[in-house]
Specification:
The strands form two sheets. Strands 4-3-5-2-1-6-10-11-9 form a nine-stranded mixed beta sheet, sandwiched between helices. A two-stranded antiparallel ribbon has the order 7-8. Helices cover about 35% and strands about 20% of the residues. The chain has one domain: 3-Layer(aba) Sandwich (Carbamate kinase). It is globular and about 50 Å long. Helix 1 packs across helix 3 and helix 5 runs parallel beside helix 7. The protein contains eight helices and eleven strands. The chain is α/β, with parallel strands linked by helices.
């Protein structure tokens, strides 16, 4: 069940196990495909909540390097384009692992497609054991299947691991009825139901991810990752972003 939001939230985390969904774009700086400074900033935010006893698993995208659906729209075979995108997420996962371990957090990368020399294969029981031992787990290569986004992978991993919440990190501070960067009168939702998100085709996550979370009762918080302290505030139950639940 979703936790109720408070204005300040308690002093202790209200969630024991979370899935943090990061797009590949969050690692991109103004010039670099992967900006080490940005990666380090994210790592320190994650390290802070990890130090509070929260079990953290991360699903990362690859859009800063390669977007499968964009390439498919330009004439490339969709399956080939999506597999290339999966490889991009592995690169991002390795970069984030490096940043987390420099921040003092033991980290494991698990991949949905086999790359023995750089990452473990995804094994649910092993992932759970890593979390229980205090390691952060980064999931890469999506679901291992073309035609499924990394948002869907995040919803799937959250359901498999029994995560209490899926945190969708974005560049905006929640879900709006239109793009707030283009429409200054865009209305922000503080809370929406899964069915509303699907019916209104809110574009923060794809419909498959929303439906999977709805079927397995995994609440979603959409929030701005680039405001320092937001991740901690969400974990403490603060009223940050938009809550999507039943």
């Amino acid at each position: 069940m979703a936790k109720k939001f408070g204005k300040r939230g308690p002093s202790k985390p209200v969630y024991k196990r979370i899935i943090l969904k990061l797009s590949g774009e969050v690692l991109k700086g103004t010039e670099d495909v992967i900006d080490p400074t940005v990666a380090n900033n994210i790592a320190h935010e994650v390290a802070e909540i990890h130090g509070m006893g929260v079990q953290v698993a991360i699903v990362i995208g690859g859009g800063n390097i390669w977007r499968g659906i964009t390439s498919a729209n330009r004439g490339m075979d969709r399956s080939t384009a999506d597999y290339m995108g999966m490889l991009a997420t592995i690169i991002n996962g390795m970069a984030l692992q490096e940043a987390l371990e420099k921040a003092g957090v033991n980290t494991r990368v698990q991949t949905a497609i086999e790359v023995k020399n750089v990452a473990e294969p995804f094994i649910r029981r092993r992932a759970v054991r890593h979390l229980e031992k205090g390691r952060v787990v980064i999931f890469v290569a999506g679901t291992g299947n073309p035609f499924f986004s990394t948002d869907t992978a995040a919803a799937l991993r959250a359901s498999e691991l029994g995560a209490e919440i899926l945190l969708k990190a974005t560049k905006v501070d929640g879900i709006y009825d239109s793009d707030p960067r283009k429409n200054p009168k865009a209305k922000k939702y503080t809370q929406v139901k899964y069915t509303e998100a699907l019916e209104r085709r809110l574009q923060v996550m794809d419909s498959t991810a929303f439906a999977l979370c709805m079927d397995n009762q995994v609440p979603i918080v959409v929030f701005d990752m680039f405001t320092k302290g937001n991740l901690k505030s969400v974990v403490l139950g603060g009223k940050i972003g938009t809550l999507v639940s039943a």
